[in-house]
Write a structure and sequence with these properties.
With 46 residues, this protein is an all-alpha fold. The protein is 48% helix and 0% strand. The mean pLDDT is 77.
């Protein structure tokens, strides 16, 4: 039975939270969020 813990929507980093970040930094933050989301989903499915 799938866990509700794994049922999350994708989130993106909001530029409003840190307007001084460069586009490159925002992309890096989004990549980190994506990686953590993937890791979380894979961990729950084990």
């Amino acid at each position: 039975m799938p866990s509700k813990f794994a049922e999350v929507t994708s989130r993106n980093f909001s530029p409003k939270l840190a307007p001084e970040l460069s586009d490159e930094a925002r992309k890096a933050v989004n990549a980190a969020f994506d990686a953590m989301s993937t890791w979380r989903t894979e961990t729950v499915q084990l």
